[in-house]
Amino acid sequence: MLGIIRTIWMTFLHMFHRNETVQYPDVKPYLSPRYRGRIVLTRDPGGEERCVACNLCAAACPVDCISLQKGEREGRWYPEFFQINFSRCIFCGFCEEACPTYAIQLTPDFEMSEYVRQNLVYEKEDLLISGPGKVHDYSFYNVSGLKIPGKNKGEAENEAKPVDIHALMP
Amino acid sequence: MMSIIWPILVIVVTVFGVLGVAAVSTMLERRLLGVFQDRPGPNRVGPFGLFQVIADAMKMLFKQDWIPPFADKPVFLIAPIIGFLAVLLCFGVVPITPIWSVAGNLNVGLLFIFGMLGLGVYSVVLAGWSSNNKYALLGGMRAAAQMISYEVFMGLSVMGVVMAAGSFSIRDIVDAQTNCWFIIPQFLGAVIFFLAGVAETHRLPFDFPEGENEIGAGFHTEYSGMKFGMFYLAEYAGVALSSALVTTLYLGGWHGPLLPPFLWFAIKVFLLICFYILLRAALPRPRYDQLMSFGWKVLLPLSLLNILVTGAVVLLRAGV
Lengths: 170, 320
Ligand code: SF4
Ligand code: SF4
Description:
Chain B: GO terms for molecular function: NADH dehydrogenase activity; oxidoreductase activity, acting on NAD(P)H, quinone or similar compound as acceptor; quinone binding. By secondary structure, chain A is α+β, with helices and mostly antiparallel strands.
């Protein structure tokens, strides 16, 4: 009985509390840079696509909303198409964690409503941005041992020269 | 000529006044609930969101009015109308000011109100029955049990006031409170009457006929468009009615110092409506059997006790 009256009184006191609401479309809330919103594909500092079409993001995605096709040009892998179905994406960020090349990144933007559901399927052209995103100076091919035009085996950062397995010297 | 026009004017203005109050209190409720929950509530349409009422009304009017093919059509149609009319008719016998009332002098005013509230049960039961939907039927059953039993305590708790004022006419009851509001000698009765009023209008926390988490939307599950709007308006008109009744029976009606009678009446009703909303914001819904046993095991003995004591006091005063 007393508890009921106390509840009523405490609820009444909330009349004099401050509003917690952010008047959203008029006042934008602050979203930290690591907020998990719209997904982008980034480029490396040289301006090339970072994605190497390894499919790890698609495998990590719990709702299977990423689909891509590997292509190859001058020894480098790249996605021929890369689709993210944002009507299924749950913005968990697993794809970003899985990606070995920092290619796929989530951004603090969530205003992506559409009237037609099909429009929520983003193609590579919609996803690809022109900058490196959150990671500024990482280029996968500069640190990996893969041979590409202009960079031979053993020429990557922190990479030792390849061992000549036919030689006898230690 | 004047003798015809004046009553018609009173009736028309009262009806539209009640409708307006019901519509505005939907808005008031949403704003106040927001305030109690530290958020602003609807504030987009017009200044302070006041036009939300109009927007809601438009939405109700233009929504598709769907009658399910399995429903019992005539009953389905008539149920909301009964509920709506019953509440509106009740306002007829509530005297708002000494000069402004449709039939405030009716010598069986209180009985008329209880009769109309009894009819209101039909609306809910028939709605639940004719919808041909098990959740609606369950809601209707609950409404029947709850409203009929709470009407008992409502009637019994009011008897104290009737005895003290010596009349069933609400006008006389208000006049009897010129010196002392009945809430002071009849405090127990006032509390019981208020609780029964909450149950009678099936408002939270006693909204079992439409307990969302158990039985969908209860008796109005199948209703849409304007027919749902009628239930909705009737509910808020019921809240206003219950507040007006508490005001006239226990809070001295239009009596009060300084301000004009109408203003006093309006202030009291407004505060009571706000209290209704506060109850909704504060209290969770009890279990159904708890409601029933609370009614029969607590409220019934208390209201009988109230009658007993009041009767004894009245007899003593009369010096028998
Ligand atoms: S954020 Fe999660 S759900 Fe969305 S694409 Fe990445 S892994 Fe899939
Ligand atoms: S975005 Fe990253 S994880 Fe996905 S395919 Fe491209 S490189 Fe692999």
